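Problem statement: downstream parser choked on a complex file, so we are re-checking the raw output for the zinc ion run. The parser issue turned out to be on our end (a line-ending mismatch), but while we're here, posting the original submission so the record is complete.
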Amino acid sequence: MSALQAILNYQEKDKELYQLERELAASPERKEYAKVRKILDGAPEKLEALETKAVALKTEIAALIAQYEDVVDRLNAMNEDFEHGDELLSSGADLSFYKKKVATASDRVKKLKADLKVLSDDVAATEEEYKALKTLVRSAEKKKVDVAGAYKKVKEEKEPAMNALKAELMQLAKEVPAPLLEKYMAKRKEKLDLPIVGKLDGMRCSLCGMEPSGLDLQKLKEGHAVECETCRRIIFAE
Ligand SMILES: [Zn+2]
């Protein structure tokens, strides 16, 4: 039997296994299971990130509050000075200079207030996000056993047929030259849709219709398998 015929035979049987794998992957049970797993697997890292963010924001808020209090204190001191405006004037102080300082400090207070508002909103949003994620995790944890069980059941239903196919494939694999089988398996892992191996049809890849390069055509003529540059599948010339 030619290597091409052997791998095509293998592929023909493998299509049945592929079909079952696809059915399993597309089953609502697996999708639900994958969804729950994704939540549970990703949650700890996300929760930690949110906690870190909240701590950082709160530190920033504390620093701003300190600055705010400092500026307010200064402003109050300046206002007190103003109450003694006459004395200041008589002592030769420049009132417009004081006014400018007060205006600058007032602007600073306004700016700090606005910044604090932004940070507080951010803390609230972060805490909200944290809570929502916690709720999601709790519900995922509750569902976990059930969805895992449902998926296992669907898997077990398909298992006898899949195992039988795998046994048949092992027999068919014996006819296929090892390097070619390896190439096929590697392609299979790439999750390419079957067929993975096809013939050269005239001058074209029978799987995608594109023409291989001159170099590849030469290799094909010499009896080697090549990977189609367009569809990345293995082509053979008879
Ligand atoms: Zn192709």
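For whoever reads this later: The longest strand covers residues 197-201.
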